[in-house]
């Protein structure tokens, strides 16, 4: 599981605490059960750092699934992102850098879908009585969250997910967010196991 810092105002904007990182740290305490190895890493809000860090993460950890988590000041629910986008990256990162090409991967597909059906995950978690509202989005924002997600989807052939969480207390606590992340990730892994062997179309035509 990887973490994105607040992408809207750097590094944490108007929020004193980065809700996504705090929630992921709480998730690390909870764990995903004895049979699932959870590796947690914090990713800088920098295009070039993402370009160098993600390939090594995928290569070294050989994960079944990578779940990125970021905080969105606009979110009021825990939001599952279905896809990552290649173009439209015009905002400067925390190093005042922006890709000259305005894209994540030159020549890559415009959009890559996760192999995970986020609508199915959303329905399952919302019907579980968890007390945290979950929704689905198809636009991760064309900044570092979207950029990271696209690259991870490319590297992992779709075996990635991105979850946006609202700021702490708006309305959920770190513990509630961690419980939601745990439930979401377990549902994702179960769906992946169920769909093992099935072919997925990762790239939008």
TrEMBL record:
What's one GO MF term for it?
Answer: pyroglutamyl-peptidase activity
Which UniProt keywords are present, listed alphabetically? Cytoplasm, Hydrolase, Protease, Thiol protease
Tell me where it resides: Cytoplasm
Query: Which GO annotations describe the biological process of this protein?
Result: proteolysis
Question: Cross-referenced InterPro entries, in alphabetical order?
Answer: Peptidase_C15 (IPR000816), Peptidase_C15-like (IPR016125), Peptidase_C15-like_sf (IPR036440), PGPEP1_Cys_AS (IPR033694)
Instruction: Give the top-rank taxon of the lineage listed in the UniProt record for this protein.
Output: Eukaryota
Question: Any idea of its EC number?
Answer: 3.4.19.3
What's any one GO cellular component for it?
A: cytosol
Q: Has UniProt tagged this entry with the keyword Secreted? A: no
CDD domains registered for this protein in UniProt: Peptidase_C15 (cd00501)
Q: What does UniProt list as catalytic?
A: 145
SUPFAM superfamilies in the record: Pyrrolidone carboxyl peptidase (pyroglutamate aminopeptidase) (SSF53182)
The record's catalysed reaction(s) read: Release of an N-terminal pyroglutamyl group from a polypeptide, the second amino acid generally not being Pro
Tell me the enzyme class.
hydrolase
Q: Which purpose does this protein serve, as stated in its record?
A: Removes 5-oxoproline from various penultimate amino acid residues except L-proline.
Q: How does it assemble?
A: Monomer.
Annotated PANTHER family:
PROTEASE FAMILY C15 PYROGLUTAMYL-PEPTIDASE I-RELATED (PTHR23402), PYROGLUTAMYL-PEPTIDASE I (PTHR23402:SF1)
Family per similarity comment: Belongs to the peptidase C15 family.
Q: What is this protein called?
A: Pyroglutamyl-peptidase I
Q: Which organism is it from?
A: Sinocyclocheilus grahami
């Amino acid at each position: 599981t990887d973490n994105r810092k607040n992408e809207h105002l750097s590094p944490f904007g108007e929020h004193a605490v980065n809700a996504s990182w705090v929630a992921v740290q709480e998730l690390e305490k909870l764990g995903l059960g004895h049979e699932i190895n959870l590796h947690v890493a914090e990713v800088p809000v920098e295009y070039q750092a993402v370009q160098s860090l993600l390939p090594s993460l995928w290569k070294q950890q050989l994960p079944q699934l990578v779940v990125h988590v970021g905080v969105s000041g606009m979110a009021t629910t825990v939001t599952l992102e279905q896809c990552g986008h290649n173009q439209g990256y015009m905002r400067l990162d925390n190093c005042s850098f922006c890709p000259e090409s305005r894209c994540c991967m030159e020549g890559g597909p415009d959009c890559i879908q996760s192999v995970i059906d986020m609508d199915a995950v959303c329905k399952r978690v919302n019907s579980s009585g968890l007390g945290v509202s979950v929704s689905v989005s198809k636009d991760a924002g064309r900044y570092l969250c979207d950029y990271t997600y696209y690259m991870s989807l490319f590297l992992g052939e779709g075996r990635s997910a991105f979850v946006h969480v609202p700021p702490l207390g708006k309305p959920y606590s770190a513990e509630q967010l961690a419980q939601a992340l745990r439930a979401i990730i377990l549902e994702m892994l179960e769906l992946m196991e169920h769909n093992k062997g099935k072919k997925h179309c990762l790239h939008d035509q």
